[in-house]
Amino acid sequence: MALGQNHTTVTRFILLGLTDQADQKQLLFAVFLLIYSMTLVGNLGMIDLIRASSALHTPMYFLLSVLSFLDICSSSVFTPRLLISFLTTDQSISFAGCVAQMALTVLHGAGECLLLAIMAYDRFVAICRPLLYHTIMSKRLCVQLVMVTYAMGVFFSALQTGNAFILPYCGPNIIDHYFCDIPPVLQLSCSDTTVANVILFFFSALVTVPTVSVILVSYTYILVTIYRMRSLEAQRKAFSTCASHLTALSFFYVPLFLVYVQLNPESASAYNKILSVLYTIMIPMLNPLIYSLRNKDVKAAVQVRVLNLSRKGIC
């Protein structure tokens, strides 16, 4: 549809992807296919393990199973499309497809931020209020918190996606990224994006700053409580339950802050692709490993699960 003499509405975008070198695409396809396979196997395995093991039917592991589900969904938004781009010369995506991809990106990103904050609060209650843990973190409250997480994710997704696509796109359609991320898409608008960038910064900060504040306050109390414990064994056990969560938090929030919470999103360049790969593709693969390698309960549950499956196979 014509917007003027020399402008037409953009109907498709071109995603440049991670590389334009043909000799690198085959190697990258194999690498990212392996990562995606490990993501699916690891997270589906974690969900199945938590479901099948009665010892893991606690609020912490319920929240971890929700995180695994979010990681599967999040990775599936990006990786299959990226794998296809390594095999074909058609790098285009429809306007509607770009809108849907951006909406799902924000939905899962905001949902994971909120869920990680809830998991930090769960650890706070478990270590600082152990006698009241099962009373406070009841099954009903956990389900309600997950429902609120998804509702807030949908809310922020609608706001951020609407903020990006309410602008007119009538000129260039080449996105220097491997998915429809907000900053590179805004750069293609044929109108002034100052207000849109301010809104992007504000709502990105509105998600990340409160959730990080909850995490920092929770872990401040946790560290103080651990320090006051007289038993070294109790200190070690309490800290080990938090170490995996702290590792996952660091891997997720650092690249997320660097990509979205910046004063001048238009200055973002190729390094944003690397940061985006970390929190969209690598973190969903690493989370099951992070939460299982240092967790004795998960290791024990894995052994029991494998033993039961082997017995069924023999029978």
UniProtKB/TrEMBL annotation:
It is a multi-pass membrane protein. The chain crosses the membrane at residues 27-49, 61-79, 99-121, 141-159, 198-226, 238-262, 274-293. It holds the Pfam family 7tm_4. Keywords: Cell membrane, G-protein coupled receptor, Membrane, Olfaction, Receptor, Sensory transduction, Transducer, Transmembrane, Transmembrane helix. It is found in: Cell membrane; Membrane. Its main location: membrane. InterPro entries: GPCR_Rhodpsn (IPR000276), GPCR_Rhodpsn_7TM (IPR017452), Olfact_rcpt (IPR000725). Residues 42-291 form the G-protein coupled receptors family 1 profile domain. CDD domains: 7tmA_OR5-like. It comes from the Eukaryota. Belongs to the G-protein coupled receptor 1 family. PANTHER family: OLFACTORY RECEPTOR. Putative odorant or sperm cell receptor. This is Olfactory receptor.
